[in-house]
Amino acid sequence: MTGGTFNARRAQLRAIAAFLQWLDDNDMNMNAVDQPAIDRYVSANRVRQQIGPFVTWAVKERIAQNVTVTRVQKRSADPHLTDSELATTAERVFALNSLPLPTRLVTLFSLIFAQPVEASIALTRDQIDDSPGRMSIAFAKTPIHLPDRLAELVREQLRKLDSRPVYHPNEVGWLFPGTMPNQHVTASGVERIAAQHGFSLRRFRSSRLQHFAQSVPASVIADVVGIATNTAYRRSVDAGGVWRAYPDLREVKQHQRLTRPCPAT
After folding, report:
1. For residue 59, with 0-12 CB atoms within 10 Å meaning exposed, 13-18 middle and 19 or more buried, which class applies?
2. pLDDT of amino acid 93
3. Quick one: 53 and 86 in the same domain?
4. Is residue 72 assigned to a domain?
5. Contacts (Cβ under 8 Å, ≥6 apart) of 140
6. Are 221 and 232 in contact (CB under 8 A)?
7. Within a domain: 171
8. For the CA atoms of 121, 125, 128, 132, what is the dihedral angle to 10 degrees?
């Protein structure tokens, strides 16, 4: 076993142990836990890959009887969408009023800013700055300005939140609160609704991240998109990015590169 494999296995075991401890702290066990609870934990801790095999095993062994594992037929990975295809899809989503607003926004965040579903659903109002002139949102360390059309949809979501009944608490300030008090929507729920409209959020995110890796410094991707710098660097190398050896850059003009794929107002 190589050192890298050993470290990966150790990290996975630690993630599983932390998950089991969380169940115990919340008076649950694998027999009683349900899908919404797992979704909330995965969304808050972003450990889908680490605990996914363990949960699948528990379902197979009939230990976790309240959890459903979706089985996907193995096939070759879908090719990345082109920048033009992503922009066309974004236009469709902007115009698709039948798509629930939270799902529209999460879809657009994946199309335009390469945001993973788990990160988008866990956004809070504190991460949004609607200063006069332009709205910005902090997906990660560095806030990024939102194009006008997208900012208006975020404002619409904020207005909906302000009009929610007071008996439906949202003390955390989630941008996308769920049906459970003080909890946000689940990744599985958002992905299911998006899939019903023919949208694959993970493919959108992977495609946009691939385009970023070809033209934006890894350090900027890490600061703005919210992935580890090493991960951004590897994506840049794999994509043949011209910036892969470029020094850290965090100037506004570099951040503006990330807003360019979105259709204009």
Report:
1. middle
2. 96
3. no
4. no
5. 222, 223, 224, 225, 226, 227
6. yes
7. yes
8. 140
93: domain range? 77-265
- Residues 185 and 183: their CA atoms lie apart, in Å, by 7
Torsion, Cα of 1, 42, 221, 102 (10° steps): 160
pLDDT at 230: 53
φ/ψ of 191, rounded to 5, equals -65, -35
- Low-confidence stretches of the chain (pLDDT < 50) are 72-76, 229, 231-233, 235-260, 264-265
Whether residues 144 and 103 share a domain: the answer is: yes
Please indicate, yes or no, if residue 31 is contained in any of the structural domains. yes
Tell me how far apart the alpha carbons of residues 265 and 262 are, in angstroms, rounded to a whole number.
9
CB 181 within 8 A of CB 169: yes
Q: 37 with 120, same domain?
A: no
What per-residue confidence (pLDDT) applies to 247? Answer: 32
In a domain, 71, yes or no: no
Residues 200 and 242 in one domain: yes
CATH number of the domain at 224, please.
1.10.443
Model confidence pLDDT, tens digit, residues 111-153: 998 898 988 999 999 999 998 878 999 988 888 889 899 999 9
Dump the DSSP string for 208-248. Answer: HHHHHHHHS-HHHHHHHH---HHHHHHHHHHHT-TTTTPPP
- Number of compact structural domains in the chain: 2
pLDDT at position 99 is: 96
CB 78 within 8 A of CB 176: no
Q: Which of 60, 87, 105 corresponds to the end of one domain?
A: 60
Q: Are residues 195 and 114 in the same domain?
A: yes
Asked whether residue 265 falls in the same domain as residue 139, the answer is yes
Side chain identity, residue 168: H
